[in-house]
Amino acid sequence: MLTDDGVPVEAVYEPCTRRSGSRGAAPADTAAEGSAPGPADTTAIVVAHGFTGAVDRPGVRRAARVFARHAAVVTFSFRGHGRSGGRSTVG
């Protein structure tokens, strides 16, 4: 993913893992044709890491897996963290 000023930002997309028949809506690929989208089809959760973190930290990955049971999840590393380019704008 690139920022408006061209800096590459490391990001990971995790689709919703809710199974058909589970409480709530099914993921988009299992929803009946013509049915209205449910929360799992239209909701995305964005997980931002802490001050010294990155997208590949175990706690961030664990949180993303848990949240993916309910909705799609996007995690990313801020500038200057993980594999993202640029310089950190903090400190």
How many individual helices? 2
Could you give the distance between the termini? 24 Å
In one word, what is the shape?
Answer: globular
Number of domains: 1
Mean of all residue-level pLDDT scores: 81
Secondary-structure element order, as H and E? Answer: EHEHE
Major beta-sheet overview: 3 strands, mixed
Strand order, main sheet: write it out. Answer: 1-3-2
Regions with pLDDT < 50 over 5+ consecutive residues? 25-32
Q: Percent helix among the residues?
A: 10-25%
Derived structural class: alpha+beta
Percentage of residues in strands = 15-25%
Count all strands and give the number.
3
Radius of gyration: 16 Å
Task: Explain how this protein is built.
- It is built from 2 helices and 3 strands.
- The chain is an alpha+beta fold.
- The protein has one domain (11-76).
- A 3-stranded mixed sheet has the order 1-3-2.
- The longest helix is centred in the C-terminal third of the chain and has 10 residues, at 58-67.
- It is globular.
- Residues 25-32 have low confidence and may be disordered.
